[in-house]
Amino acid sequence: MGLGWDETVYVSQVGGHTPAAFFSAPRARGVPLLVAPIASWSSSTELLRVYLALLSGLGLFLALRAWRGLFPARVLGAGGALFATLWVTVFYGPQAMPNYWVAIGALAGVGYFLRAQADPGDRAALWGVGASAALMAWMRPTDAVWVTLPLFVVLVCLPRWRRPRVVAALLVGLATGAAQWVVEAYVGFGGLSERLADASGIQGGLGWNIAVLDQLRTLGGRSLCRPCDGSIPATQMIVWWFVLPLLAAVGLAVAVRARRTAGTLLPLACATTAGIPYLFMIGYAAPRFLLPYYALLVIPVADALIHLVTASIRKRRPVAAALVALGLAGHLAVQYTVLTRTVDRTTASHRDWARTAAELHRLGVRPPCLLTGHLAIPIAFYTGCRSVQTQGHNANTTAAGIAGSAERLPVAALTTPKGEAPEFARTWERHRVAGLLLHVAPAAR
């Protein structure tokens, strides 16, 4: 499938075959750390995909193990299967992106938290709380805060849950994971508040903004919806999105009747806070943003489905099982239909980037080289060049700096066919490929 835009930014930080791309304020160093064992010595996308697929499967398995003793094994297995067969999980699990790993950290962290509360002497659970919090903060510090917010509320407001070791594990884990991000804020962004403000600006300004319809529009396979317009996908593609929280509510009712409310209510509370910023505080949408929300819902949902089958009257049990199986089969068919379309569309766009890179090589733009303009970041990765911008969220140089580089390096400016070339590139040789115009500096020849 090739590497996507964000993936090229993360992989370039540790890959030796291409210069590191500009690392903007919202990003954290967790993904580069995750891919370093492969990307630091190999440029093979296939090898990286296999490594991440195996690692993501192992991560899900370990996260589910954190819930042992809290739910029966069949509930955990069913919940894992539900999460692992969502198209968004299968699509992003083998990608160099942070959201899946926030989801794994959230799922494991809540499970370990409940185990640590149930057994204060469970040292493995305490270590699990800290490690899960660190994983989330390594990947996306702000998401880690939203996910753990209900855990802190419980620790502060409920005296019988107030265990100093659990509080310490949670705080140390978050601090360990976020420390590098905070230090980098002061070194490269002028301070923590400045970095948070920059991150908010890049995301369109965080504030009250209902993005529920935007998220609905992504369920048909749009990996990014910005600006988010167009029609909402067909009913069969979005119905699962509404059924999931309803089944989670059934799972909560089952837990209340069985007098084990905390084990279901807490993951639902963490799922709610994990979803708040991406459903009500951001002006665009991507399906991967809600992966932590889905991961925390699946165990209560699986509990509800198994209860619907096993609690039925014996004569009706086969009917209930058949209905649940039929619903899950239809759900699976929809998920993999969307997945196939999404992969095909993504692969086609990434092939265009590879074609553009090949054409740039043919025109003499080879490393060491410089690219600027439209789609410069991912195409620079494919070309082996350094990407620079003079404006926008990734601005890291000036027009004079690019013009000066063009006198000694191969440089190209990329624009859309309707776009206007930068002033310094208007006399450069122009070529068209894969829907782009390549303005190539004379030095490339």
TrEMBL record:
Keyword terms of this UniProt record: Membrane, Transmembrane, Transmembrane helix
Transmembrane intervals: 47-64, 71-92, 144-161, 166-183, 238-258, 265-285, 291-313, 320-339
Keyword Membrane belongs to the record: yes
Signal peptide: none
Protein name as catalogued: Integral membrane protein
Organism: Streptomyces phaeochromogenes
Lineage of origin: Bacteria, Bacillati, Actinomycetota, Actinomycetes, Kitasatosporales
